[in-house]
């Protein structure tokens, strides 16, 4: 402000002719310098007394603040008053200046993602659902679903980061009172703390994740498991591999173990009460075992000439209009060998289903009157490729001779439970040997992962020599065969062996066979003449279609095997080797 005074003609100043008015402070002209690290700015210039000087955070975008006070995120600006003495009502101390920041990080790292050594499948693993924002101007949240292999230090812990944790399959968080919750959430606040805490509860088993894999020496297979956790008190059922029986009781059908809740003495919560040592598992064999044979005399020899023990097909018989149900274990598929509709000639003409049904009061036919071609085709169409099926045929379902008109009809089926694999596809890859051996389970996974190709071939030759007729397929004979070729290769021989072992022959039957006789067996099963020009792959594909699908009957219904990989076990020194079992199996003839 300034005043104007004018000297007039009369020699008097106007309007102030004696003295000027007193000066008065009207503005604060020296604002405190803003510390650079505060990221604050002001409007510059002087501040009128009685008014306020405004400071605000830098980096506004489109009129919106992108930075906020570190001590209070609801604020991005503040004001100080200009006093009458020309000073600001502010001490100017660095601690009095607010700091502007875009984002913060919570002081404590968020918890690690829960996991367990039992989680060999990533789908079972513990997890965190992470929702966070990227500043300065987030438009929407970003989400990620992570498992335990994600580093703890990389988990987001900035403002409004929300982390929802889950323990993983078959586990939940346990509270102090013993109750359980499925998830826990934590939220990072502007004051760098987590709500409710930077810690989460411990995880506790609330079910059994999966039934354990039986040791290889037990020859057991888990059946009926739906790949889901088993509740406490639920069971896991194990049955013998196809063509085998329980060593201690051949009539035994299965062994069952229970999922434990940990309340019983010595029980382990979340695990089945299976044996902890390999040799304590029940064992399945093709036939009973004798005691160890006498030692070989010095410079003597011993030759094993076992009897060939075949499979016993299963039979089912129902009367017309009754439901016929055929069932195999869940890991096997139905293969209908034969079937008929009608009546067969019997000494007791009234007999139905070999005495399993009440006698027919009207008697029976003088000679057999059956329809087998149509019914076997229909049952195969209904059942192949499945582990369970049902059919129902009425009294007049199929045409029969007049001699059967007044009598009840039987629906009789003979079937085998087979293991279905696409054996022909093994021959499509250069890894056919490794894949075949893995399917055969002749070697451990560790062995197959670490062996060289040359050593693998040599060991395979020795295995084939002992699994087939070794007098024909000597190591030398097998050694000159190609790994892969249209016919007669090592991979082809392996694939054919597997296809027969999985379906219609036993280990002891195959031990008396050659490559040529195995091919002939498949042709016979297909009811085809032997065709030496047909490749092994073509023959195996026909075998698969005939036994494992309905494709050769009406429509394809292919089955793809599903495998669940468990943790591996070490072989116990108390377990007999395959060679020792062969020598002691009933039917072994040692010379």
What would you note in describing this structure?
The protein is of the alpha+beta class. Among the domains are: 27-101, Complement Module, domain 1; 122-205, Ribbon (Complement Module, domain 1), CATH 2.10.70; 320-418, Jelly Rolls (Sandwich); 428-560, no CATH class. 16% of the residues lie in helices and 20% in strands. The strands form ten sheets. The chain has a five-stranded antiparallel β-sheet with strand order 11-10-12-15-16, with no helix packed on it. A four-stranded antiparallel β-sheet has the order 23-28-25-26. Strand 13 (171-174) and strand 14 (180-181) form a beta hairpin. Helix 8 (515-525) packs across helix 9 (536-548). The longest helix is centred in the C-terminal third of the chain and has 15 residues, at 453-467. Residues 554-573 have low confidence and may be disordered.
Please supply descriptive tags for the structure shown above:
single chain; 591 residues; alpha+beta; Complement Module, domain 1; Jelly Rolls; 5-stranded antiparallel β-sheet; 4-stranded antiparallel β-sheet; 10 helices; 16% helix
Please summarize what this structure is.
16% of the residues lie in helices and 20% in strands.
Strand order of the largest sheet: 11-10-12-15-16
First CA to last CA: what distance?
130 Å
Low-confidence stretches: 554-573
Helix content: 10-25%
Largest sheet: 5 strands, antiparallel
Structural class by secondary-structure content: alpha+beta
The radius of gyration computed from the alpha-carbon positions, rounded to a whole number of angstroms, is 42 Å
Share of β-strand residues: 15-25%
Shape: elongated
The count of DSSP E runs of length 2 or more, i.e. the number of strands, is 28
């Amino acid at each position: 402000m300034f005043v104007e005074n004018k000297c007039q003609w009369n020699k008097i100043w106007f309007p102030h002719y004696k003295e000027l008015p007193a000066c008065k402070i009207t503005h604060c002209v020296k604002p405190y310098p803003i510390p650079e690290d505060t990221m604050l700015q002001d409007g510059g210039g002087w501040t009128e007394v009685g008014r306020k000087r405004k400071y605000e955070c830098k980096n506004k975008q489109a009129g919106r603040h992108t930075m906020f006070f570190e001590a209070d995120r609801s604020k991005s600006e503040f004001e100080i008053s200009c006093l009458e003495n020309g000073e600001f009502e502010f001490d100017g101390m660095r601690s009095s200046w607010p700091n502007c920041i875009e984002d913060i990080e919570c002081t404590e790292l968020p918890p690690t993602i829960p996991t367990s050594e039992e989680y060999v499948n990533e789908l079972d693993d513990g997890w965190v659902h992470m929702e966070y924002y990227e500043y300065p101007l987030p438009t929407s949240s970003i989400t990620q679903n992570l498992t335990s292999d994600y580093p703890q230090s990389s988990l987001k812990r900035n403002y409004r980061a929300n982390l929802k944790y889950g323990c993983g399959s078959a586990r939940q968080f346990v509270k102090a009172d013993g109750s359980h919750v499925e998830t826990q959430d934590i939220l990072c606040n502007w004051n760098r703390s987590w709500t409710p805490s930077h810690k989460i509860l411990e995880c506790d088993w609330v079910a059994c994740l999966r039934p354990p894999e039986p040791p290889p020496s037990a020859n057991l297979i888990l059946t009926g498991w739906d790949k889901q956790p088993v509740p406490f008190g639920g069971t896991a059922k194990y049955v013998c591999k196809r063509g085998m029986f329980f060593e201690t009781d051949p009539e035994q059908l299965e062994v069952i173990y229970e999922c434990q809740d940990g309340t019983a003495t010595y029980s382990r919560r979340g695990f089945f009460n299976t044996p902890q040592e390999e040799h304590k598992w029940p064992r399945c064999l093709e036939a009973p075992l004798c005691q160890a044979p006498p030692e070989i005399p010095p410079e003597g020899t011993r030759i094993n000439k076992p009897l060939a023990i075949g499979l016993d097909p299963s039979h089912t018989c129902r009367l017309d209009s009754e439901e016929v149900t055929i069932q195999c274990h869940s890991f096997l598929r139905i293969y209908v060998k034969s079937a008929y509709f009608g009546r067969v000639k019997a000494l007791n003409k009234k007999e139905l289903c070999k005495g399993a049904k009440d006698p027919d009061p009207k008697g029976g036919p003088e000679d057999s009157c059956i329809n087998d071609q149509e019914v076997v085709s229909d049952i195969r169409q209904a059942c192949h490729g499945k582990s369970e099926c049902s059919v129902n045929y009425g009294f007049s379902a199929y045409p029969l001779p007049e001699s059967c008109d007044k009598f009840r009809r039987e629906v009789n089926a003979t079937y085998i439970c087979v293991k279905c694999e696409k054996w022909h596809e093994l021959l499509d890859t250069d890894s056919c040997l490794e894949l075949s051996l893995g399917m055969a389970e002749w070697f451990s996974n560790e062995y197959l992962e670490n062996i060289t190709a040359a050593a693998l071939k040599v060991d395979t030759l020795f295995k084939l020599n002992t699994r087939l007729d070794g007098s024909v397929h000597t190591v030398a004979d097998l050694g000159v065969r190609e790994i892969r070729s249209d016919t007669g290769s090592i991979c082809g021989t392996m694939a054919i062996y597997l296809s027969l072992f999985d379906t219609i022959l036993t280990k002891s039957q195959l031990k008396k066979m050659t490559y040529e006789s195995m091919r002939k067996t498949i042709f016979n099963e297909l009811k085809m003449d032997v065709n030496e020009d047909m490749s092994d792959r073509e023959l195996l594909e026909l075998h698969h279609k005939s036994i494992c699908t309905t494709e050769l009957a009406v429509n394809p219904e292919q089955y793809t095997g599903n495998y669940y990989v468990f943790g591996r076990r070490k072989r116990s020194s108390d377990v007999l080797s395959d060679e020792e079992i062969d020598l002691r199996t009933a039917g072994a003839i040692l010379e």
